[in-house]
Amino acid sequence: MVTAVKRLSLNKEQMSLLLGCGVRFFLSAALTGSTVAGGYQPFALGFAAAAGTGAAGGAALAGCLTGAALFLEFADALRFLAAAVLIFAAATAFEGTRPAKSPLFTPVLSVFLFLCVHFIYLFQSFRFWDNLFPCLAAAALTGVSARLYTLLLRQEGNRQLTLLYVSVTLLTSVAGLALPGGISPGRAAVCCLLLYTAYQQGMGIGAAAGICTGLAMDLCSGADTLFYAAAYGLSGLLAGLRSRCGRGSAAALTALAALLLSAIWQDTPSLLAETLLGCTVFLFLPGKLFSGKRVQEKEDVTLLDRLRLQLKESSAALRDLYDSFSRNSAPTENPAIIFDRAAEATCRGCALCDLCWQKEYTSTFNAMNDATPFLLERGRALPKDFPPHFSSRCIHFPELLTSINGELSAFLLRRQYRLQMEETRRSAQGQYAQLSDLLASTASHLGQAAPAFGTAPSWRVGAVLSPKEGESVSGDSISSFETTQGRFCMLLSDGMGTGEAARRESSMTLRLMERFLKAGIDPEAALKTLNSALSLRSSDTGSFTTIDLFLLEGDQGAVYKYGAAPSYVKRGGRVQRITGGCLPAGLHTQPAPPDSSHFPLEDGCFVVQISDGVADAGHDEWLLNLLAGFPGSDPQLLANAIVAQVRKQGQMSDDCAVQVLYLCSAGEKKEV
Known about the structure:
- The protein is α+β, with helices and mostly antiparallel strands and 672 residues long.
- It contains 22 helices and 10 strands.
- It has helices spanning 2-31, 42-51, 54-71, 74-94, 105-124, 128-153, 159-172, 185-201, 203-221, 227-241, 247-264, 270-283, 303-327, 336-346, 353-359, 361-378, 388-393, 397-445, 499-518, 523-541, 621-629, 635-648, and strands at 459-466, 476-482, 488-495, 545-553, 556-562, 567-571, 574-578, 595-600, 606-610, 656-663.
- The longest helix is centred in the middle third of the chain and has 49 residues, at 397-445.
- The relative contact order is 0.05.
- Mean pLDDT is 78; it is low at 1-10 and 292-301.
- The chain crosses the membrane at residues 15-36, 43-71, 77-97, 104-123, 129-149, 161-179, 225-241, 248-265.
- Keywords: Hydrolase, Membrane, Transmembrane, Transmembrane helix.
- It comes from Dysosmobacter acutus.
- InterPro entries: Bact_Sigma-Reg, PPM-type_phosphatase-like_dom, SpoIIE_N.
């Protein structure tokens, strides 16, 4: 099975390569038929340069050879193929080099080799100055074609303009073919394409595209005037000017421009007929080909969609900023710099400098290396840190020791500064990551209806807060509420220490968490954001808090913990303990997700949250037995029984908090 999949993938790659080579072959062959004044083929040479090297470039070169055999005389084909072969050979020779990566390399190379080949023929002609301008114009067209064809093949830039250029250059090869009455289908198609581009891009680009298209048509027709440049330039300007008034107005003004120019140039009667034919085709183009607000076929983007897109882009920008911190970590400083700088200040003028640092370099290096751990641990260098053979040989040992201590102090200060900067960088990095998650979560839920969790079960909640003996206020805080999204939440937080200070920290944590959840933010994103904020706060206050969140969605329960005591799920006589290994919120130096557990629930279940003043995972056998043997269905009675047992065991050495949820059976009353 694996072999078959690999073989299928390889065949697809081969088919893609074959298709690309075929397209390049036929395009280069067709473009060879587009000949400008002087008998040059700049469009085919530009396409051969854009096709590059390898199989794709070889296919384009083969297309040039085929086109030369079909469309050109022997002398013109010889110089054309000479330029094409040189361009392919030079591109192959420079492939992978630094200059070849420049976007201007291919156009400049094609122009240079075009002139190298054709100047030889130009110098041999008897009309050098007469033929110079057509040669230079063809060279410029070769460079422009190489650049635009490269953008098209790589799918970069404005694809509509590059496609227009390709279409026009292809149609110039058949522009000379005419129907009865002198009407050229090729020029009519060019007129339609120009009208479409001007209508979409506006009058500036429309006029520029029209002039360039007309110049190419004038060069290919060999005319001595700039008739098509003037006609198509004016048509593009007028079509772009009236683009917001509908396709009919743009087509009418284009036809009017053709009528006026036909009246001025009496010897071009086919222009008006070709323009009318192109306008007719333009008017019958399907509406789905047009984008933007100029036509009504495309549905306008709603304000909600734009807001969602803006939030997603902001989230991506913050995520990129977060990633940039990881790529630019500062290098650590080697302690060897202490001795290097001390020796530079003390040993340079010493009579024994050559002995210590050249002849006995290994011994000196080992003496410094052996002393390094003691210096860094103590923060100061002492004579005993260095071996006797080194300290007795050094005639400036006291001065060297003083210099080492000075450099050591500077080194330790720099290291402390870098550590502080690294801590600040990690904190900022975590904030960017959490903001990115918050924006992404908000964008994903924006405009969505509240999720359907099935029939919402009924519940009752019981809770007890008991302060530590000798305290009047409990440092623990509890909360339970229902969000507009249909979730029921229970929160318990244990502040560091006891008393009023701990209560302020824990209640603030629950208040912020409740706001996040009621705003519809994903629980894990809200917890990570709150953890990062508390980490910054703890750097000033030195405090931290635990967070224990229980979430009920339909018949599914979820528990999220930051350093919290175990939670318990009671199903009849069976009790499940749920623990976590995360540190409390505010102690993480880097963004860390909370511990999470997900499980199904049914009617008659109890979910119990406790603080560490009640029990921990290593000393909760009594609690497991109490829960398993509890016969009733009143969560408040169960909470009271747990706290009473703690008092009975004489364990009120810390604040105690218990919060119990009971899922009611059918017919029981819900109370919160």
